[in-house]
Amino acid sequence: MQIRILVTGEPPEPLKSQYGDYPAMFERLISPYSARLSFSATDVTKGEPIPAISDFDGLLITGSPAGVYDGHDWIAPCADLVRRTAEAGKPQVGICFGHQLMAQAFGGKAEKSGKGWGVGVHDYKIAAQREWMDPPSNHIACAVSHQDQVTELPKGAQILGGSEFCPMGVLDFAQGPAISFQQHPEFGHDYGEALLRLRKGRIPAERADPGIDSYKGRSDRALMGKWIANFFLQHGR
Known about the structure:
By secondary structure, the chain is α/β, with parallel strands linked by helices. The chain has one domain (2-235): Rossmann fold (3-Layer(aba) Sandwich). The chain has helices at residues 13-19, 22-30, 75-87, 97-105, 189-198, 205-214, 221-235; strands spanning 2-7, 38-43, 58-61, 92-95, 109-112, 118-126, 139-146, 148-152, 158-162, 170-172, 178-181. A nine-stranded mixed beta sheet has the order 2-1-3-4-11-10-9-6-7, sandwiched between helices. Strand 9 (158-162) and strand 10 form a beta hairpin. It is globular and about 45 Å long. It comes from Hyphococcus luteus. This is GMP synthase.
């Protein structure tokens, strides 16, 4: 099953050489759970053309420093790809920016939150279970790094998980098969901490310092990697 990673951003240069790019992070996260999944990448921020629906079996949309409301010329074609992938019945997963892009593409809204930066490891309560959530869990603790949030749900979307800080943190879209996470399961704790230390100057210390400390705690990123693999396999053709 061919998973196309739609790349909408990349790690800062000081970290990229050590930790790799986002496609490499996602492949490390997901591939251990099935030999049936293979990966390729399209970086729309570098002008690479939007892939044809026939070119992939599943779509994964990465995080980005951009907001879905920004005027980049690649955002609208990506939103159109989200809708066409849903119409074709192919599974797709959005992460952070991808989460927000999918919500907006299906008729919802994402915007900069008045709550400010979400950083470090955040714990989301799971409000509804799905078959692909195997093994099941009532909570997922994972890295976050965002100022934007989904603030209006598309028609028919269901909230699968979230927190007081980010209530619409995990979504299941009626147009699916399509799910999304505000969290970053592709971020290992070492990368997440290094990224936060790098950004500490632009993130208030009262957020950054507890966020750095939170990386000493547990992470459910491996579980989330298995869930994402399960989702693709469940809905693959």
